[in-house]
C-alpha cells in the first residue's frame, strides 16, 4: 500500500459518519475540527504561532547561544548585532536569550492559571446550576462581587496585597479569571439540568458529582475550552501588565512584561529593550485570540 | 507650544511661518520648572517630613537660624540668627534674631516664633525631631532649655557638652525651620499645633510661598514680595511630577522643563553629551548599603560578611548604572568630612569570595532571601550582586518591594537600600552605622541601621564614636574619626557600604544659581535665567 | 406603565405592581450584598499590602517611640474586626479617611482625580463607538469578504495589544522623534492654574470659562491616550456589533423586506440597526467599565493624574485609606453602570417589558 493510499484510507475512515466505535466517533469529531481549522487561515496562523511558542519554550537551551541571566556590565545596552540578535540589556544580558526563555515564563503563567481556573470555575458554576436554590444564590453572589471589579484592578490589588512574585501573580490573575468561567458553566449546566439523560441518571441513583463528571463535563467542555483559549490572551496581557508595574516575575527570571517595563528606563537609547518584548506579547496574545476565535467558529457556527 | 503645533497639525497655520519647535519650547523667563518624582512626598510640615523632595520645598518656604551654603557645606553662616555666642563651657548658645523679617502672613518674625517652633519640633516627636532630640532635648526639658529671653534673643542650652558644630548644623536642617506662631494659633486642632493645617499649606518667612499643591501632580510656589533679602527673580517655581526618566529627559531636552531631578544614568549620560544641560552630581551623606542580618547563623560569620565585599562589581557599576548616582566608597566616612581616608581595598573577586566561603565552612554556598527596593539604581545594584553571588554559589532569592518595615523589625536575611543623613558631620552617619547600645530585640533601637542588622558593633568603635561627638577640639576630633574609619573597615561590618550616594540633577545651561545641596536645602531664590 | 397594560384586569395590575416592587427590593438587596462583599474584599486587600503603612508616613529613620505613636494614631493597634467596624461606620458617613500620601481627605482626592479619568474614558468610549460600531456593521454585512477579515484582524489586534507598550511606543515615535504630541500630563505647564473648577474636568471647565488656550492644551494632551484606549474599545465594540448584526441579518423580516424590494442599506440601518441599538448600548456601557481598567496602565505611561495612577501609587505606598476609597469607587461605578444598562435595557427593549 502506498503512503498516500494509506492516508486516503485514514481520511475516509475519519470522515465517514458510519461509526463502528465510539473511538472512531471521537476521532471523527477531532478530525473534522482539524479540517475546519486548516480551512480558516487566520485561525491556523494562530495555531501555528502557539505551536511555535511551545517549541521555542521547550527548545530554549538549544536555540540560544547565551545564558539568559548571566551579566556582563561591559556589554550593557549594545544594539542588535550578529552576536546579539536583539541587542543586550542594561546588565549586558542577551535580549534574544531572555526573550526565548521568557516564552517559558509566559506559558508557565498562562497554563498554570488555566489549570487552576478551569476546575474551580466549572465546579462552582456547575454546582450552582445543578443544585439551584440558596447555594446557587450564594455562589452567584460571590461571582458577581468578583465580576463587579474591572479585572486588572482586581488583579493589581490582589497581587499588590500578596506581594510580588510569579506565584502570587498567578493566584491574583486566577482570582479574576474564574468568575466568567463559572457563569458560563452555570448557564451550560442549566440547559442540560432537566435533560432526559440527566434525569435518567438521577433515577438510577447517580450522585451529583458523578452526574457532573460523566454527563455535564463532556457537554460543557467545548464552550469552556473556547473561552479558556480566548482567556489565554487576557491572562498574558494581565501578567505583562503586572510585570510592567513590577508585581510579576522577580529578577533574574525573564518575563516579557517586566522586560518591556525595565527597558522603558532606557527607551531613548535602547529602543529594542521595550519594543521587542512588546512585539512578542502582541504576537502571542494575537495568536491565542485568532485560535480561540477560530475554535469558536468551529464549535459554534452561528457566529461564523 | 504644543497648542501651536496642534494647530499647525490642523492645517490652520502655515508651516513656513511657524518658528522651529525648539524656539517655541522654552519655559517663561521668570518661571522655574522642575521635573521631580513626587511619589514619596508626605506633606509639607517641616517638623514631620523626612524626605528629600519635601525638604527642598520646605527649605524655600521657611527659614532657619543658620545657613549652610551649598558650596561651603560645613561652614555655618548667619540666617535668621544675625550672630551667636557660645558660653565657655560649650553648653549655652545665645542667638541674636534678625529684625525686620516678615512671615508670608505679614506678621513680624521674633525670637518667640523661634522658641515656639523648636519646642514644637521636639514636642511633636516625629521623625525629624531626632535633629534636636539626639542632643538630649525632650518634651520634658525643652521648655526649660530653649527659651526666648526677649523678642530678639534666643537661648539654647544643651544638657551635655557636644561639639558646637553638631548643634549649629542641626539648626540649619530643614527640620528646625521657623514657623509663624501667631498665624498658626487658630489653626490648632486637638492640640496638634497646626499639624493638619501645615500638611498642604505654609506658614513661613522664606523667599517663596505655597500657591497650590496637588499630590503626585504639581506644586506651585510664588515669590514672596516682602522677602527680607529682596524679591526673588523667579516669579513662580513649578514642580511637576514626571515619574519617567525618559519623559524627564525629553522634556528638559526640549526645554519644557528647566531642571530634571530623577533621571537614569543613561539618560543623564545622553543629556550631558547633548550639551544643552549641565549635570550636577551632589554628594550626599549616605550610602548604598547591604545589610546582612546577624541573627542569621551563616551571615553572622565574619568570613561570610567579608565574602560579600568581594561580590560587588564596584568598577562595573561605577561605569554604568552608578555613574551619576554614587561614588565608589568602602570606608564609612565620606570624603570632605573629618577623618575621611581614600581607601578602597575591595574589588569584584569571585574566587576570593569562594575561598572565604570555604574557610567559613560553606564551600557549596547557601540560599538566602534578599530584599531590595525596585527603583533605579538600587534594583540594578541588587541584581548585579545577585548575579555575582550566584557565581560564588550563593543563591539569592531577590524580592523587590517595600521591605523597609521588615528591615526595621530585623525580619529579613539580606536587605539593601540607600541612606541619607542631613547633618554634614561624620557623627550623623556613624550614629546609625556604628552605634548599637543594646543589641537585644526588646531594645527596639529601630532608628539605627546597626540595631536593625542585629550587629553588635565592637565596643571600642562605639566608645570612640561617642567620644568624638563630645570632643570640642576639631583636630583631635578629626584624628579620632580617622581611627574609627580604619577600625570600621577592618571589622568586616554587617553593613557593607559600596557607594557614597550622589544626587544627580540635570540643569539647563540658561539656568544659573540652582545649586544642588548635600543636605537637601537647594535654594530657588538665587536662580536666574539667561536670555 | 405601558398602554397595553391598562386593558388588563385591575387585580392583575396590582399584582404586577407588587411583583415589580418585590423585584426592586430584591435587586436592592443584591446591590447591597455586592457592595458589602466589595467592602470586605477591599478591606482585606488594604490590610494585606505588605508595605508598612506607618513607615510610609514617618519615613525610614524614625525611632521606635515615633513609630508606636503613629501606629496608635492610625488605629492599627485595635483588632481587625474593630478596624473593619470603624471602617464601615466611616464609609456610612461618607468619610473615607485621610490619605497618608497626599495628606488630603481621600474623598477630596477622589473628587480631583476621578474627573481626569472620567474625561479620558469618556472620550475613549466615544472614539471607540464612532469607529467600532460602523466597522462591525460593515463587517457583518460584507461577511466573508476581505472587509470582514480586515475588521476581524483589526479587532483582534485591539484585544491583543498591551496598551502600556503601545503608549510607550507612541510617545517614543510621536513625541521623541517628531515632537507632534505632548509627553504626558493633562495640560501645558503655563496653562496651569488658569482654570479651576466646578467639575474638575479640564475640558468642560475651560469651555465653561471660555479659556480657549486651556481647552486646546487640554484637548491636545488628552487625545493621544484617548485614541489608544479608544482603539481597545473599538476592537471590542466592532466585534460585538458584528455579531449582533449577523443575528439580525438572519431574521426573517430582513428577507421579507428584501423581497418587498427595499434597498439593502435602508434595511440595514432602519430595521436591523434599530433592533440592535439596545444591545449596543449595553456593550458600550461594558466597554466604558473595561476602560476603567485600561486607564490604570495608560495613566502611568502618560503621567495622567487620574484614578488609575492614584490607586497604583496608593497600593505601592500602603496608603490604605486611598486604596480602599479608590477600589470602592471603581467597584461602585461598575455596579452602577451595569445596573443602569440593565434598567435602560428593560425600558427600551420591548421584549423585556
List keywords for this structure.
heterotrimer; A: 304 residues; mainly alpha; MetI-like fold; 0% strand; C: 353 residues; 2 domains; 14 helices; 76% helix; globular
Task: Categorize the overall geometry of chain A.
Answer: flat
Write down the CATH topology of the largest domain in chain A: MetI-like fold
Taking all Cα atoms into account, the compactness measure Rg of chain A is 23 Å
The low-confidence runs of chain B, each spanning 5 or more residues with pLDDT under 50, are 1-24
Tell me the quaternary state: heterotrimer
Q: Can you summarize the main beta sheet of chain B?
A: 11 strands, mixed
Q: Based on the coordinates given, report the CATH architecture of the largest domain in chain A.
A: Orthogonal Bundle
Uncertain spans of chain A: none
Describe this structure in words.
The complex is a heterotrimer of chains A (304), B (531) and C (353). Chain A has helices spanning 3-15, 22-39, 41-58, 60-63, 95-131, 133-147, 151-162, 166-193, 196-203, 208-244, 256-263, 271-299. Chain A is an all-alpha fold and 304 residues long. Chain A folds into 2 domains: 1-39, no CATH class; 46-303, MetI-like (MetI-like fold), CATH 1.10.3720. The mean pLDDT of chain A is 87. In chain B, strands 1, 8, 9, 10, 11, 12, 13, 14, 15, 16 and 17 form an 11-stranded mixed beta sheet that branches. In chain B, strands 4-5-7-6 form a 4-stranded antiparallel beta sheet. In chain B, a hairpin with a 3-residue loop joins strand 8 and strand 9 (218-223). In chain B, helix 12 runs antiparallel to helix 14 and helix 17 (426-434) runs antiparallel to helix 19. The longest helix of chain B is centred in the C-terminal third of the chain and has 17 residues, at 474-490. Chain B is globular. Chain B starts with a helix and ends with a strand. With 353 residues, chain C is mainly α. Chain C folds into 2 domains: 2-92; 107-352, MetI-like fold, CATH 1.10.3720.10. Chain C is built from 14 helices and no strands.
Amino acid at each position: 500500500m502506498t503512503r498516500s493510499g494509506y492516508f486516503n484510507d485514514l481520511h475516509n475512515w475519519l470522515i465517514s459518519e458510519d461509526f463502528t466505535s465510539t473511538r472512531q466517533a471521537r476521532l471523527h469529531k477531532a478530525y473534522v475540527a482539524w479540517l475546519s481549522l486548516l480551512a480558516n487561515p487566520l485561525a491556523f496562523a494562530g495555531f501555528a504561532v502557539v505551536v511555535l511558542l511551545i517549541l521555542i519554550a521547550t527548545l530554549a537551551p538549544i536555540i540560544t547561544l547565551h545564558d539568559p541571566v548571566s551579566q556582563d556590565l561591559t556589554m550593557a545596552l549594545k544594539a542588535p548585532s550578529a552576536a546579539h540578535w536583539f541587542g543586550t540589556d542594561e546588565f549586558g544580558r542577551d535580549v534574544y536569550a531572555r526573550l526565548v526563555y521568557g516564552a517559558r515564563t509566559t506559558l508557565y503563567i498562562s497554563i498554570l492559571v488555566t489549570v487552576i481556573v478551569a476546575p474551580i470555575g466549572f465546579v462552582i458554576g456547575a454546582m450552582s446550576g445543578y443544585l439551584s436554590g440558596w447555594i446557587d444564590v450564594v455562589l452567584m453572589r460571590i461571582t458577581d462581587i468578583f465580576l463587579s471589579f474591572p479585572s486588572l484592578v482586581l488583579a493589581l490589588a490582589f497581587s499588590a496585597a500578596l506581594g510580588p512574585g510569579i506565584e502570587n501573580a498567578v493566584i491574583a490573575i486566577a482570582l479574576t479569571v474564574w468568575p466568567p468561567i463559572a457563569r458560563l458553566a452555570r448557564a451550560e449546566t442549566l440547559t442540560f439540568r432537566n435533560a432526559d439523560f440527566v434525569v435518567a441518571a438521577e433515577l438510577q441513583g447517580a450522585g451529583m458529582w458523578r452526574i457532573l463528571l460523566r454527563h455535564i463535563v463532556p457537554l460543557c467542555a467545548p464552550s469552556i475550552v473556547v473561552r479558556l483559549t480566548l482567556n489565554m490572551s487576557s491572562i498574558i496581557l494581565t501578567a505583562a501588565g503586572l510585570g510592567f508595574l513590577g508585581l510579576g516575575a522577580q529578577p533574574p527570571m525573564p518575563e516579557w512584561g517586566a522586560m518591556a517595563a525595565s527597558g522603558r528606563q532606557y527607551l531613548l537609547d535602547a529602543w529594542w529593550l521595550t519594543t521587542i518584548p512588546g512585539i512578542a506579547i502582541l504576537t502571542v496574545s494575537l495568536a491565542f485570540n485568532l485560535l480561540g476565535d477560530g475554535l469558536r467558529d468551529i464549535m459554534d457556527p452561528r457566529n461564523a | 507650544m504644543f497648542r501651536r503645533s496642534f494647530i499647525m497639525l490642523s492645517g490652520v497655520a502655515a508651516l513656513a511661518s511657524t518658528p522651529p519647535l525648539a524656539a517655541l519650547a522654552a519655559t517663561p523667563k521668570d518661571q522655574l520648572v522642575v521635573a521631580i518624582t513626587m511619589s514619596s512626598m508626605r506633606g509639607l510640615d517641616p517638623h514631620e517630613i523626612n524626605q528629600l523632595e519635601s525638604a527642598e520645598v520646605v527649605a524655600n518656604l521657611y527659614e532657619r537660624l543658620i545657613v549652610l551654603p551649598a558650596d561651603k557645606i560645613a561652614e555655618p553662616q548667619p540666617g535668621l540668627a544675625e550672630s551667636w555666642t557660645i558660653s565657655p563651657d560649650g553648653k549655652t548658645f545665645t542667638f541674636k534674631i534678625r529684625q525686620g523679617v516678615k512671615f508670608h502672613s505679614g506678621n513680624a518674625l521674633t525670637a518667640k516664633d523661634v522658641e515656639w517652633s523648636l519646642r514644637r519640633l521636639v514636642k511633636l516627636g516625629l521623625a525629624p525631631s531626632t535633629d534636636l532630640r539626639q542632643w538630649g532635648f525632650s518634651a520634658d526639658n525643652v521648655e526649660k532649655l530653649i527659651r526666648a529671653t526677649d523678642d530678639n534673643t534666643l537661648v539654647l542650652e544643651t544638657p551635655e557638652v557636644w561639639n558646637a558644630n553638631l548643634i549649629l548644623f542641626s539648626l540649619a536642617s530643614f527640620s528646625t525651620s521657623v514657623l509663624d506662631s501667631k498665624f498658626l494659633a487658630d489653626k490648632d486642632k486637638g492640640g496638634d499645633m497646626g499639624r493638619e493645617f501645615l500638611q498642604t499649606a505654609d506658614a513661613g518667612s522664606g523667599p517663596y510661598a505655597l500657591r497650590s499643591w496637588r499630590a503626585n501632580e504639581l506644586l506651585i510656589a510664588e515669590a514672596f514680595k516682602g522677602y527680607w533679602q529682596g524679591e526673588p527673580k523667579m516669579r513662580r517655581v513649578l514642580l511637576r511630577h514626571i515619574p519617567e526618566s525618559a519623559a524627564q529627559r525629553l522634556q528638559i531636552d526640549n526645554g519644557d522643563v528647566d531642571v530634571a531631578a530623577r533621571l537614569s544614568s543613561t539618560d543623564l549620560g545622553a543629556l550631558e553629551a547633548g550639551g544643552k544641560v549641565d549635570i550636577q552630581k551632589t554628594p550626599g551623606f549616605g550610602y548604598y548599603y547591604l545589610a546582612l542580618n546577624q541573627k542569621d547563623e551563616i551571615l553572622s560569620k565574619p568570613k561570610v560578611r567579608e565574602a560579600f565585599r568581594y561580590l560587588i562589581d564596584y568598577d562595573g557599576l561605577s561605569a554604568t548604572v552608578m555613574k551619576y548616582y554614587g561614588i565608589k566608597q568602602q570606608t564609612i566616612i565620606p570624603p570632605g568630612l573629618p577623618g575621611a581616608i581614600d581607601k578602597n581595598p575591595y574589588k569584584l573577586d569571585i574566587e576570593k569570595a569562594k575561598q572565604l566561603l570555604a574557610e567559613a565552612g560553606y564551600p557549596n554556598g547557601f540560599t538566602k532571601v534578599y530584599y531590595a527596593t525596585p527603583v533605579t539604581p538600587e534594583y540594578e545594584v541588587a541584581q548585579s550582586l545577585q548575579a555575582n553571588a550566584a557565581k560564588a554559589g550563593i543563591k539569592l532569592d531577590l524580592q523587590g518591594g517595600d521591605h523597609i518595615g521588615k528591615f526595621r523589625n530585623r525580619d529579613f536575611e539580606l536587605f539593601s537600600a540607600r541612606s541619607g543623613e542631613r547633618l554634614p558631620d561624620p557623627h550623623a552617619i556613624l550614629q546609625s552605622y556604628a552605634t548599637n547600645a543594646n543589641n537585644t530585640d526588646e531594645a527596639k533601637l529601630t532608628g539605627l541601621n546597626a540595631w536593625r542588622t542585629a550587629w553588635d558593633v565592637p565596643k571600642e568603635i562605639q566608645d570612640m564614636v561617642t567620644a568624638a561627638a563630645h570632643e570640642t577640639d576639631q583636630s583631635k576630633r578629626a584624628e579620632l574619626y580617622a581611627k574609627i574609619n580604619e577600625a570600621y573597615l577592618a571589622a568586616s561590618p554587617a553593613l557593607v557600604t559600596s557607594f557614597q550616594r550622589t544626587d544627580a540633577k540635570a540643569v539647563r545651561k540658561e539656568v544659573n544659581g540652582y545649586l544642588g545641596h548635600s543636605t537637601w536645602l537647594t535654594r530657588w531664590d538665587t536662580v536666574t535665567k539667561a536670555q | 406603565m405601558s398602554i397595553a397594560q391598562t386593558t388588563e384586569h385591575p387585580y392583575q395590575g396590582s399584582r404586577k405592581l407588587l411583583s415589580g416592587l418585590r423585584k426592586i427590593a430584591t435587586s436592592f438587596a443584591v446591590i447591597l450584598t455586592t457592595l458589602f462583599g466589595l467592602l470586605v474584599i477591599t478591606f482585606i486587600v488594604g490590610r494585606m499590602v505588605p508595605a508598612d503603612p506607618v513607615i510610609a508616613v514617618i519615613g525610614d529613620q524614625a525611632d521606635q517611640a515615633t513609630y508606636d505613636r503613629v501606629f496608635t494614631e492610625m488605629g492599627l493597634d485595635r483588632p481587625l474586626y474593630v478596624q473593619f467596624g470603624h471602617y464601615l461606620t466611616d464609609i456610612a458617613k461618607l468619610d473615607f479617611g485621610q490619605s497618608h500620601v497626599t495628606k488630603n481627605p481621600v474623598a477630596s482626592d477622589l473628587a480631583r482625580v476621578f474627573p481626569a479619568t472620567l474625561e479620558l474614558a469618556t472620550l475613549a468610549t466615544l472614539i471607540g463607538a464612532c469607529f467600532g460600531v460602523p466597522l462591525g456593521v460593515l463587517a457583518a454585512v460584507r461577511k466573508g469578504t476581505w472587509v470582514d477579515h480586515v475588521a476581524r484582524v483589526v479587532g483582534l489586534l485591539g484585544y491583543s495589544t498591551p496598551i502600556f507598550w503601545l503608549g510607550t511606543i507612541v510617545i517614543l515615535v510621536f513625541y521623541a522623534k517628531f515632537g507632534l504630541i505632548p509627553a504626558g500630563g493633562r495640560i501645558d505647564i503655563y496653562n496651569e492654574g488658569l482654570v479651576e473648577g466646578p467639575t474638575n474636568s479640564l475640558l468642560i471647565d475651560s469651555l465653561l470659562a471660555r479659556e480657549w488656550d486651556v481647552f486646546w492644551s487640554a484637548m491636545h494632551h488628552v487625545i493621544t491616550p484617548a485614541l489608544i484606549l479608544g482603539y481597545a474599545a473599538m476592537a471590542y465594540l466592532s466585534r460585538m456589533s458584528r455579531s449582533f448584526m449577523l443575528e439580525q441579518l438572519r431574521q426573517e423580516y430582513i428577507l421579507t423586506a428584501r423581497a418587498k424590494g427595499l434597498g439593502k442599506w435602508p434595511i440595514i440601518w432602519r430595521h436591523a440597526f434599530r433592533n440592535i441599538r439596545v444591545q449596543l448600548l449595553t456593550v458600550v456601557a461594558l466597554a466604558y467599565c473595561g476602560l476603567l481598567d485600561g486607564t490604570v496602565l495608560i495613566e502611568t505611561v502618560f503621567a495622567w493624574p487620574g484614578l488609575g495612577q492614584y490607586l497604583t501609587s496608593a497600593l505601592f505606598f500602603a496608603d490604605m485609606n486611598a486604596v480602599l476609597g479608590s477600589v470602592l469607587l471603581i467597584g461602585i461605578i461598575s455596579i452602577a453602570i451595569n445596573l443602569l444598562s440593565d434598567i435602560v435595557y428593560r425600558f427600551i427593549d420591548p421584549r423585556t417589558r
